[in-house]
Structures are given as C-alpha cells and as structure tokens.
Amino acid sequence: MAKLEEYIPIVGQSIIDDLRLLAKRLEGKCVQHINSTAVGGGVAEILTRAVPLLREMGLNTEWDVIKGGEQFFEVTKKFHNALHGRTEEISQRDFDIFMATSEENIKGVDTHGDIVFIHDPQPIALIRKKAENKWIWRCHIDVSNPNQKVWKFLADFIVNYDSAVFSAPSFSQRLPIRQFLIPPSIDPLSDKNKELPHELIDSVLRKYEIKKDKPIITQISRFDRLKDPVGVIQAYLQVKKYIDCQLILAGGSASDDPEGIQVLEEVREKSKQDKDIHILLLPQNDIEVNALQRASDVVVQKSIREGFGLTVSEALWKAKPVVASNVGGIPLQIKHKYSGLLCHSIDGAAFAIKQLLNSPGYAKRLGENGRENIRNNFLLTRHLKEYMLLFFSLYHPEDVIQL
Amino acid sequence: MADIIKAKEPFRFHTRLHLTELTGLRAINLAQLASLTKDVPGACIYHHTHRFLQQHQYLSPEPPNDFAYWVTEILGEDELGEMLSSIDTIKYSTIRSLRDKIVETIESYLKGNPLAKMRFAREGEEFHFVKSVSFILPTDYTAGDLKEFAEILKKVTVDSIYFHIFESRLRLEKNNNDFSNWILTSVGNNALAEKISKLDPYTHTLEGLRSNLVDMVERQLRG
Fold it and tell me: ipTM score here?
C-alpha cells in the first residue's frame, strides 16, 4: 500500500503538509468506519486505501464490518436498486429481514468511536446506539430519484445522524440535518491509474489484436443498458462515415447478470459486421484497463444514469479527451468545452467525437485541463482532506471556522 | 538594493480549506434562480461566485461563476450569461452587495426578455445551491519584512494566497486584501500596498497571481 510521501510528486508537498496539519488537530479522536464488507465494491476499495493513510498521519482510525446473511444482503441489494430508481417489489417481509439482522448488529457491534462513520444503507440502523458521540451517514449511491418507500424507511434513521454525505449535488434531499458534498476519488498510485511503460501498453494491445493504425475510441464499462454500449456503437458508426477509426468496448464479465448477458449479445450482434469494433470481456484486470485507456485517442462514457462515473476521472487523469453524458456525477468532472465534452444523445456523442478526432490540438487541451481538474479535485488526497474537515464540522456549526 | 524595513508586526500566513455543504435547494428556471438567490445563505453566494477560482485554478482566463455558467450552458441565455460573468466582483466589498447585483441583473434581464421565463433546465441539470464552509488555519510561515514576505509567497499553498486575497476581503469584510493591509500598516509602504490593492485578482489564475505578487514585491526590494 502506498505511503503518504509517495503522493508528494503528484500533488505537491504543501497538500501533504495540510493533511498532516489537519490530522494533528484531530489527535485523540477515534474515528470508526462501519460498512458491510471488507472486500469487493467501491466502499471497501476506498477504505482499503484511505484507512492506512489516515493511520499513517496519526489519526486513530478503525474499520469494522457488520454481519449479515444471504437474505439480508438480497434485501439490501433490492434497496440499492430501488434507491437508484429501478422498479423493485419491496415487501414488509423485506423490511422485517432488514430489521432482524440490524437488531443483531446493534447488539453485536461496539460503536465506541468519538465519530462513527456509517457507509451506505446496510449498517444504517446502528444509529439506534447513538450516545454522546457523533455519527455520520455516508451515502455512496445515486439517490436523485429514489423509490419513496425505501427512502422513507431509511429517512427515519438518517434524521438521527449528525450529518449526511452525498457524492453529487443532485443526490441531496431536503433533510433536517447538515448534508455535505464529498465526491469519491481515484488513487493515482493504484494499478488502474499509475503510469505504465509504453511496452506494457503495446503488449496489451497485441494481446487483444488491436492495431494502432487508426484512432481508438474506447468505453470502459460493464455491459449494462444504463451504460448504453449499443448507443456507443451507433455513435461510432456515425463517426466512421467520415473518419476511419476503431472502437473498444471493454467491461467486466457478466456471467452472474442475466440482463448483462443479453446486452452483451446485442452488442456482439451489432458489431459483428465491423472488424474495427473490439468487444473485450475483461476479468478484473486493472492494469489492462489502465493500458486500454492510455492507448485511446478519445474515451467515451455514454451512460444513461451514473452514480458518479469514476471511469471518467480515470480517463481524464490520463489526460484523455473525454465525451460523456451529462448525468450523475459526470458534470462535476467535466465542464463542457473546458475539460471535456458533454452530450445528451447519440448524435451529440458522434459530433463531439468527430470534433476531437479532427482537432487534435483542441482535444489535447481538453485532456490536459481534465487531468488538472482531477489532480485538484478528484484524487484520494482531496478525499482524505475533506473527510477530516467533515470531522471538524461536527463540532463547529458555523460557516467560517477558525481552527 | 534599498534598505529593508522591519515590519511593526510580523505577517502570519494562514490557509483556508473548504468543505461543500448541500442545501437541497434547486432552481429550474431564471425566476426560481433569482428568487432563491435572494434568500439562500451568504455562504451559497460566496461558493457560487468563487468555486471556479479554486477548482479550476489552472485555467486562464478564469471561467465564469456558476450562475453565468448555468445560464449560458444549460438555459442557453448567452447574453445574460455574459452579463453575469462580467460582474466586477472586486468592486463589491460584501456578499450582500454582490448578491444584490446578481439578483438585479437576472431580474432586469427577465423584464426586458419575457420569453426567457419559458426556458427550463432539463431533469438532472437544475441549479443546485450549495454552501462553502471555510476552515481557516494558521501556517508556520511568518514574515518580518518584505524580503521574507516575498520568499514565503513563493512557497505557500495557493489556498493561502486565495485566503488572504479573496476570502479575507469579501467574506470577512475587511475592505482590502490582507497583504495590502499589512504592507500599509506594518511596513508603511503605501505605494506597494496600493499597487496590490489595484490588482484585479479575478482575472488571474492563482499561480499567475502568485508570480505577479512576488514580482511586485521583488521590484520594490530592488528599488
């Protein structure tokens, strides 16, 4: 795991000094993170990298995981989908299963931290143990258009927290407690984002039989309708009429997702006539994803809905010009025409891709601006800083705080 | 090289870090934008007129404030967008007066362009009002004279420069930036203090501002 010092060449000494300054002022406070899994999923990924760095700075940071059986996690998966706005049948039995496991965790989990930091809905009911300590609920989900039945059920817990945290302004709801905006982040030193030698990038292209003889357009996403891979192919075909180019659609395996398999078949069907479309079913291989992004001339993220869209941050960090839909957290990462191009349709995506391929100087400038935007706003170091500021805010209700 | 005057009081550099607080308030058209802009906390007005400076500090010239950006890019009202982005923020010494100017600009545009009332943001593209919560911390850097001041200016974070130039003047309502105040009252150099006061910081990137300030002080030191 990377040490704090290794971030200095990337973000500068002063940013790391600020982090240490903040951590010093939090000395003596115990911050206890609680989520539902130690491995797998975005929350565990962030905590795995953040907790050791916070500890390195001297902040007493603990990480606990709740227990839950198969039924409980089936229900929380349904909650997750419903909060994303998908139609789900949620019965009283589901709420009962959720509460039964929550009661066991209320008995079993020791919430002794000065600050208890609860991630996502699974451990939300632990708030019933609130004593004199401070409690934060961190929502990592897009709740801009939630199923009201599930949201109201959760809101009864949320209102008892001291603060809530969301990833994008559009996710915030009218709540009687303070709410903060803390977007997620990428780790520039992880396998998915670190610098790669050219030879390695070339070897990944060779492995997938992709030649560098024409511009490469890429979308990295699982095969899911909400990521609109078919729309990406249609946009590519429009571009192809004018510019000889190739398309990579790469994403994780869809074996456990019946809808994903169907989408993958549709994508294959649409692309079978064109040898310049490369459909890559990648296992969890961060280095290869990194290499494909770095090999691309334009990166696309034409999602119909998006939680935050960290693949956009990943591409921008590699200084790639990006064309992405104006949904979820994407407009936080891309200011149209400053650090990338936003689109609302297949035609719009095709037009933007053509602009970038035909104007490499413009594309380069957008990519460079995008990289600086990520450096300033979406790296792990910013995330750590904001978590520490959040801890201070629990003790200071005012808008200007002299520490 | 002119003699270096010892300051009566040393200058302690501070830094400012910020957290964004959500309000749950959103506007979908110009009438709502004007009405909510009148009522939201001052910390919201501050956030939406200054966020770009820090978040996009590498761009030059600076992109417009959030109001101008939304009006132009989402509602397609280019003319109003231009009016909002060219509000001369440096002229306003309080958030209240800046807020009044923004509201007045939108309302008078609506009077002259009634059709603009018919423009609505699409779902997901609403204007979300958020607040800026500032945390001000002293750094370890202290300058006892202009020479030390110039040396420290070269190495403090842009957040520190930002705080002393923008936030201290407008948000803490000090009328002038901290650097000019110190140079005037503690160093007694009126000419340099005035020169820094006259700088329009809103048309520089933060790094550009840093090199301008260093350059001004070093020229002064060279006599």
Answer: 0.84
